[in-house]
Amino acid sequence: MSAHTIFDNAPIGSIIAWSDGTPQPPARFRKKLAAWQSSNSKGRLIRKQGGRGVGNVSLSACFTLHEADYGASGVVAIRVHRTFSLESKLHFTIVERPAIGSVRVLDRAGDDAELVYLATNEAEAKEWLTRHGYPGAVLQEVTADEVGADAVEGRAA
């Protein structure tokens, strides 16, 4: 799929894989494998941003994937996000959609909202919010209409 297809059809919270189409090198070639992994990986879709302009500069629409967290003892020290423009030449695939009934915890209301947690139900989402500092957080349930639209329209994961 193209980046446009992901932007238009993938719900927030989906797991998205991306690839440049090259074959994976053998594990013994560590530097080549590390370079390959930067163009061939997966992450959770946490944000979609439409095109916007800043002064004379026009920025195209994009989406952001949460690729990984690094830390120790339950403390996240580094969070890796990847942002892709709709002009990206990479190939994208929807690996997994959020389950019906799961609840998205968004950092704020509006179009610029970012997914900070995907809970299995509303009780878990509220419990998670008591332990994390997001005063403007918004809870959004994943509905059957949102996830089921792909089956009705003939799209596959």
Instruction: Report the uncertain regions.
Output: none
How do the SSEs run, as a string of H and E?
A: HEHEEEEEEEEHEH
Helix count, per DSSP? Answer: 4
Shape: globular
Structural class: alpha+beta
Gyration radius, rounded? 17 Å
Estimated helix fraction: 10-25%
N-to-C CA distance: 10 Å
Mean pLDDT across every amino acid position: 88
Strand order of the largest sheet: 6-5-2-1-7
**Strand tally, please?**
10
Reported for the largest beta sheet, the result is:
5 strands, antiparallel
- Beta content comes to 35-45%
How would you describe what is shown here?
By secondary structure, the chain is α+β, with helices and mostly antiparallel strands. It is 22% helix and 39% strand. It is built from 4 helices and 10 strands, in the order αβαββββββββαβα. It has helices at residues 3-9, 30-38, 122-131, 144-152, and strands spanning 15-19, 41-49, 52-54, 57-59, 62-72, 75-85, 91-96, 103-106, 115-119, 138-141. The chain has a 5-stranded antiparallel β-sheet. A hairpin with an 8-residue loop joins strand 8 (103-106) and strand 9. The N and C termini lie close together (10 Å). The model has no long low-confidence stretch (mean pLDDT 88).
